[in-house]
Design brief:
By secondary structure, the protein is α+β, with helices and mostly antiparallel strands. Helices cover 35% and strands 36% of the residues. It has helices spanning 14-28, 35-39, 43-55, 100-114, 129-137, and strands spanning 4-8, 60-65, 68-78, 83-91, 119-125, 141-151, 154-164. The chain has five helices and seven strands; from the N terminus they run βαααβββαβαββ.
Length: 165
């Protein structure tokens, strides 16, 4: 993969991040969430959300090819516990399964090790089997805990996964 970079997101990336976020939800959760909810996802609202996150230095990173954003991830670091929480990781649905998610995950692991992080945790919807397989490929294991989360008043089962590094 030539001209691939992994870098911290800038305000200029927010539009691309919001587009990837909305399009990914529409594709990934079309069998899990009501069409009316997915149809009402607003890129403008998501763009404002991501602009604020980026402005607040919220550990948002992008993977680019030839300068064009192909995916993004959001991390939180919990230093007393030496833990990284992977809040989100998305690749443009147009180019899934082309290695961009792997580039991000490898860099997340490298960054975490450099920051003396011992564990990466994440939550994943049980219905997102492709994501679960992706995380398992990198060595993530399911925690024994799962919970139901509310997304627009719809209860959906979420599993916790972790990677010891």
């Amino acid at each position: 993969m030539n001209n691939i970079t992994f870098r911290e997101a800038t305000i200029n990336d927010a539009k691309f991040i919001s587009s990837i976020h909305v399009l990914s939800w529409k594709k990934t959760y079309k069998k899990t969430l009501p069409a009316s909810m997915l149809d009402n996802l607003c890129m403008k609202n998501k763009e404002e959300f991501w602009v604020n996150k980026i402005k607040n230095k919220s550990n948002i990173y992008v993977v680019t090819k030839d300068g064009i954003v192909q995916g993004f991830c959001s991390l939180s670091f919990v230093q007393p516990k030496r833990m990284c929480i992977l809040n989100s990781i998305y690749v443009s649905p147009k180019i899934e399964r082309n290695g961009f998610g792997s580039v991000m995950m490898k860099n997340i692991i490298i960054y975490s090790k450099a920051a003396k992080i011992n564990k990466i945790e994440l939550g994943v919807l049980e219905s997102n089997t492709n994501a679960i397989l992706f995380y398992r490929y990198f060595g993530f294991q399911k925690n024994d805990t799962s919970k139901y989360i509310n997304i627009n008043k719809i209860k959906i089962k979420e599993s916790a996964m972790f990677l010891l590094i």
